[in-house]
Design brief:
It is built from two helices and twelve strands, in the order αβαβββββββββββ. With 231 residues, it is mainly beta.
Amino acid sequence: MTPVFCMTVCWIAMLGFGLFAEPKPCKDDWALIFHAPSGNGEDVLNTWKTRHNNCDIVSGICPCSMSDGCLPPKARIETYKSPSKTLRSPFIDYWDCLNINKVKFELNVQGDTVAFLEFDGRGSNYLNWFNNSRILNSSWTDLDKSETYNVFSIDTESMFGRNFFINKNNGVCHVRSGWLVVKEKTNITNLCEWDKHTTYPQFLYSQHGKVTRWIAKEYGKADVLNVYIQN
């Protein structure tokens, strides 16, 4: 998008849809742009990447219904497992125009935050914000910019159904260790035991604030995944 077009889109989007239009009671306000419950059978990565084709923010024509998987502006459903659908904000499609300062990835269990990462969102796009070079804050004490990772990516291992994956070391199943993975259904059958679940997606996170060996299954399973932005 050209700079002029971006400025026009953002001005219309903010005023017409009220994402950041109202005065903030606190400078640390976050806007929810993505909400995914575990075990609902919907593909998180595919939903994150799929544009809302019927939404034109420039013209102001943007029907947004939760029943269609669209997340309305200023939604406050982040701590609930209902609705059961994965919800995506159309503002993700205008990421480059939103002057994003920070991005937060958060996991909840029964309304409580069990794991989170905050990223520097400046100059990012809707995929590369999830990168260790952008880490600002984390619930894990051993996860920072200087740590060694063999995978830190939204979609590098999507073939294996491992998305939003943060892994420390490569190798056979029993030696792999990491912090976070969104486990999706995949057609590949030769998987590690920790890849296999009865329902998908599953949001696995290492507990006790540090890396864990996946095969030990000392990980937690979150109910809800949320992504927020802040400008």
